[in-house]
């Protein structure tokens, strides 16, 4: 799969699993994304796809890298609809 395609799948999954916050942006906790069965089947390297989407300014999250367990409560937020 190419990166563009994986990023678009990631956006779909964030929309499916996330909720709108006070700013009207959709966000989901990293732990929810990481532990979702459908995401696990779609993404071989979820963290790499998240980094690519952040570089393209499609999503944002605190920090440079998200790790299971340590960063489960970090919000992953869509910047565009």
From TrEMBL:
Coiled coil regions in record: none
Domain spans labelled Costars: 1-79
Biological processes per GO annotation: regulation of actin filament-based process
Assigned protein family: Belongs to the costars family.
Name under which the protein is recorded: Costars family protein ABRACL
């Amino acid at each position: 799969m190419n990166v563009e395609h994986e990023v678009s799948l990631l956006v779909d999954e964030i929309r499916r699993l996330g909720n709108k916050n006070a700013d009207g942006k959709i966000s989901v906790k990293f732990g929810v994304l990481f532990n979702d069965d459908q995401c696990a089947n779609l993404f071989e390297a979820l963290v790499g796809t998240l980094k690519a989407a952040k570089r393209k300014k499609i999503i944002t999250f605190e920090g440079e890298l998200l790790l299971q367990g340590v960063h489960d409560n970090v919000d992953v937020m869509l910047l565009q609809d």
